[in-house]
Design goal:
The protein is of the alpha+beta class. It has three domains: about 260 residues, P-loop containing nucleotide triphosphate hydrolases (Rossmann fold), CATH 3.40.50; about 100 residues, P-loop containing nucleotide triphosphate hydrolases (Rossmann fold), CATH 3.40.50; about 130 residues, Alpha-Beta Plaits (2-Layer Sandwich). It has 15 helices and 31 strands. Strands 27-24-26-25-29-30-28-31 form an eight-stranded antiparallel β-sheet. A hairpin with a 4-residue loop joins strand 8 and strand 9. Helix 12 crosses helix 13. It is globular. One of its GO terms (biological process) is regulation of translational termination. Keywords: Cytoplasm, GTP-binding, Nucleotide-binding, Protein biosynthesis. It is found in: Cytoplasm. Belongs to the TRAFAC class translation factor GTPase superfamily. Classic translation factor GTPase family. PrfC subfamily. This is Peptide chain release factor 3.
């Protein structure tokens, strides 16, 4: 119980450039995982140093894969699940969100809610994931804090409750008042280290002396307004995902970060029950269960090894214990499971609900696989969404067709992209969110599988998973549209609509068929 209750497993998510990486790094700094944050100049190298594994990301300096960072803080065990910064890998982020108990969304104070912020909030809402919002870059000239709060409520469709408050902003930004603990700590700005702080009573003249009389009276007025306008913070509403606590700060300058982290560990939920197809699984159940939410290749570029990330849902994971791999109906043991620290990984002997263990994977895992001590249950992952881009993939080296076949299969099991096999001509169509995913596939086929691929254009609008109670109509539809029918890797029927017009005609002509843009309904 104690082990479960002290765990905080969460993801920091944001629209690219809002400051997710910087905030993550500052958390590691406060968690004692790193001593100096290297944020100032070498953003790219910094990113490769902590959480990026693949060669391709080193070249490009973007974060492609997801990793885990753990540390102890004030008696809590904090597990941060990192997510790729580039929006072409959004699906990865969505899947990572299946493994967290809460999320922190970073928003740029000058830009407000951006496209990816909206989408990420939708995904959190699908699973009722509690969110905290961190409004970053208060050291820049941004928008008025009250306007930002209104925008969050409106655009993200959730109630907000500020738990810290900025003292001025831009060049005159002085720090943040901690509403949650009703105290003010002033820091000296420092990009790299944790600096000394001074505690100030905001009702004393000391505040006026420290931040200036104008700022002091503005802060007192603002706080009065905040407490008048927003209902008192209620931890249950937050944990039920009805209200999002909001914090202000500047991750780069270390302002508002400790306020956020201190409050986060106290209010964020410990591991919640996990929904399996058969039943709810409670974290306190004695027997181990877990699921794979992420597979990453090539941690060591010299060996083609994969690591499957397993989220422990119940019981205790123990090294070398026999576990049941449900999909393969096979007993598996892991002699060298790993846990992750900021810059290294180490072998782990046991892990508790909320923890993520890295399992060496030589191709036995697929995203969404369940492990148990024997019980036949299936955890449900996040559905696939209709991709935005489609291309035919062809083998470009006839001598290497085995390698090509194997490479494609494993990359799809890892969830690098989606694949649809056209039932008419048997050609494979790869669907992605962004162009970069095609490049990753090509690169990895070449470097990990020694296979070459070629892309050919295919003009498609949407992939629709179809269902109907009317078997006959479904059969008629498949016959009529046989050139556009495909199977996804789970073998489900998918209609590939080549235009919005064709899709709406199909919906009109086949009234008993439902067309879904996600794979689960
Ligand atoms: P990510 O793409 O969300 O991971 O964003 P990064 O953490 O890489 O930050 C994007 C850029 O914003 C970097 O150049 C950071 O140095 C900068 N940045 C992050 N936090 C702050 C902040 O509080 N103030 C200012 N002025 N810049 C920041």
């Amino acid at each position: 119980m104690t082990e479960i209750e002290r765990r905080r497993t969460f993801a920091i998510i944001s629209h690219p450039d809002a400051g997710k990486t910087t905030l993550t790094e500052k958390f590691l700094l406060f968690g004692g995982q790193i001593q100096v944050a290297g944020a100032v100049k070498n953003n790219k190298i910094k990113k490769t140093a902590t959480s990026d594994w693949m060669d391709i990301e080193k070249q490009r300096g973007i974060s492609v894969s997801t990793s885990v960072m753990e540390f102890d803080y004030n008696g809590y065990k904090v597990n941060i699940l990192d997510t790729p910064g580039h929006q072409d890998f959004a699906e990865d982020t969505y899947r990572t969100l299946t493994a967290v108990d809460s999320a922190i969304i970073v928003v740029d104070s000058a830009k407000g809610v951006e496209a990816q912020t909206r989408k990420l909030m939708e995904v959190c809402r699908m699973r009722n994931t509690p969110v905290i919002i961190f409004i970053n870059k208060m050291d820049r000239e941004g928008r008025d804090p009250f306007d930002l709060l209104d925008e969050l409520e409106e655009e993200l469709n959730i109630h907000v409750r500020p738990l810290s408050w900025p003292i001025n902003q831009g060049q005159r930004f002085k720090g943040v008042y901690n509403i949650y603990e009703q105290k003010l700590n002033l820091f000296t700005p420092n990009k790299q280290r944790v600096t000394e702080k001074v505690e100030i009573d905001i009702n004393s003249n000391n505040l006026d002396e420290q931040v200036g009389a104008e700022n002091a009276s503005q802060l007192r007025d603002d706080l009065e307004l905040v407490n008048g306008v927003y209902p008192e913070f209620d931890i249950e509403s937050y944990r039920n995902a009805e209200v999002a606590p909001v914090f202000f700060g500047s991750a780069l300058n270390n302002f508002g970060v400790q306020e956020l982290l201190d409050c986060f560990v106290q209010i964020a939920p410990s591991p919640k029950p996990t929904k399996a197809e058969e039943r709810m699984v409670e974290p306190t159940e004695p027997k181990f269960t877990g699921f794979i939410f992420k597979i990453t290749a090539n941690i060591d570029p010299n060996h083609r090894s994969c690591i499957a990330f397993c989220k422990v849902c119940s019981g205790k994971f123990v090294r070398n214990a026999p576990y049941h791999h449900i999909r393969l109906d096979k007993t598996v043991r892991f002699s060298s499971p790993t846990q992750f620290m900021a810059q290294r990984k180490s072998t782990v002997d046991e892990a508790y609900p909320g923890d993520i263990v890295g399992l060496p994977d030589n191709g036995i895992f697929k995203i969404g696989d369940t492990l148990t001590e024997g019980e036949n249950i299936h955890f449900r992952g996040l559905p696939s969404f209709s991709p935005l881009l489609f291309k035919y993939i062809e083998n470009d080296d006839p001598m290497k067709s085995k390698q090509f076949q194997k490479g494609i299969e494993q990359l799809m099991n890892e969830g690098v992209a989606q694949m649809f096999v056209n039932q008419f001509n048997n050609r494979r169509i790869i669907g992605t969110v962004g162009q970069l995913q095609f490049e990753v596939i090509q690169y990895r086929l070449e470097h990990e599988y020694n296979a070459k691929c070629r892309w050919e254009p295919v003009h498609l609008h949407k992939a629709c998973w179809i269902e109907s109670d009317d078997e006959q109509e479904l059969e008629n539809f498949k016959k009529r549209k046989y050139q556009y029918m495909a199977k996804d890797i789970e073998g489900r029927d998918v209609f590939l609509a080549d235009s919005g017009y064709v899709l709406s005609m199909a919906e009109q002509d086949f009234k008993h068929i439902k067309f879904h843009f996600t794979s689960e309904f």
